[in-house]
Design goal:
Number of strands: 0
GO molecular function: DNA binding
InterPro entries: DNA-bd_HTH_TetR-type_CS, Homeodomain-like_sf, HTH_TetR, Tet_transcr_reg_TetR-rel_C_sf, TetR_C
Pfam families: TetR_C_13, TetR_N
Keywords: DNA-binding, Transcription, Transcription regulation
Number of helices: 11
Order of helices and strands: HHHHHHHHHHH
Largest sheet: none
Strand content: under 5%
Protein name: TetR family transcriptional regulator
Number of domains: 1
Mean pLDDT: 90
Structural class: mainly alpha
CATH class: Mainly Alpha
Shape: elongated
Distance between the termini: 69 Å
C-alpha cells in the first residue's frame, strides 16, 4: 500500500512526448497550461517541479522532436548517392512526414514560434538555430556534390541550400493548412524542376 503523502509519480518521458504533441499542434503561444497538464496527466505544480517552466518544457519538447521525428528526412539527405537524389529524397520524405494523419501536420521547428519578443526570445533563438543547422546540413551535402565532381565548381551551394530549406518550410505551412501528400509532392516536383537551372542544363 503506498505511503500517505508520497508525491505522485509519472512517466516523465511519456509526459514530455504528449507535451511535444500539444506544442506541435498549437505552437508555443497557442498551447495553454491547462491543455499541457491535461495532455501530460499531471497538475501544474508537478509540471513546474519536473520541467521548471513552460519555456523550459517547450525547449525540452523541441529537443525530443529532433530526436524522434523526421529522422528519415535527414537520413535520406546523407545516404543518397548523388546530391540531386539527396535533395529530392529529402523533399519527398518531408512530404511524407508532414502529411501523416496520426500526428500534427507540418514541422514544430518551422511553426512552433515565429514572432520574437522579450518573453520568448530564448525559444525563437533556439528554433532559429535549429533551422540554421538544417540549412547547414543541406549546404554540406551540396558542397560534397561539388567536391565529388557531380556539380560544377561554380555551383552556388549556399543559395541552393537556402532555396530548398525555404521550400521545406513552405511545405510545412501547406501541410498545416491541410494540403494532401499529393499536393506536397507536386511542390517537390516543382522545386526539382529548378535543379537543372541551378546545376546546369546537363545535370541529371
Amino acid at each position: 500500500m503506498p505511503e500517505r503523502g508520497r508525491p505522485r509519480t509519472f512517466d516523465r518521458t511519456a509526459a514530455l512526448r504528449r507535451a511535444m504533441e500539444v506544442f506541435w499542434a498549437k505552437g508555443y503561444e497557442g498551447a495553454s497550461m491547462s491543455e499541457l497538464t491535461a495532455a501530460m496527466g499531471i497538475n501544474s505544480p508537478s509540471l513546474y517541479a519536473a520541467f521548471g517552466s513552460k519555456e523550459a518544457l517547450f525547449l525540452e519538447a523541441v529537443e525530443l522532436y529532433t530526436q524522434v521525428e523526421g529522422t528519415d528526412i535527414w537520413s535520406a539527405l546523407e545516404k543518397s548517392p548523388t546530391a540531386r537524389q539527396a535533395v529530392e529524397r529529402f523533399l519527398r520524405q518531408t512530404a511524407k512526414a508532414y502529411s501523416q494523419t496520426d500526428r500534427p501536420q507540418g514541422c514544430l521547428i518551422a511553426l512552433g514560434a515565429l514572432h520574437q519578443d522579450s518573453s520568448r526570445g530564448a525559444i525563437c533563438d533556439d528554433l532559429r538555430r535549429r533551422r540554421a543547422e538544417n540549412r547547414a546540413a543541406l549546404l554540406r551535402r551540396l558542397e560534397r556534390g561539388v567536391a565529388e565532381g557531380e556539380l560544377p565548381e561554380n555551383f552556388d551551394c549556399r543559395t541552393a541550400a537556402t532555396f530548398y530549406a525555404t521550400v521545406q518550410h513552405g511545405m510545412s505551412i501547406q501541410a498545416r493548412d491541410g494540403a494532401s501528400r499529393a499536393a506536397l509532392l507536386a511542390t517537390v516536383a516543382g522545386a526539382m524542376a529548378a535543379w537543372k537551372v541551378m546545376a546546369g542544363r546537363d545535370a541529371a
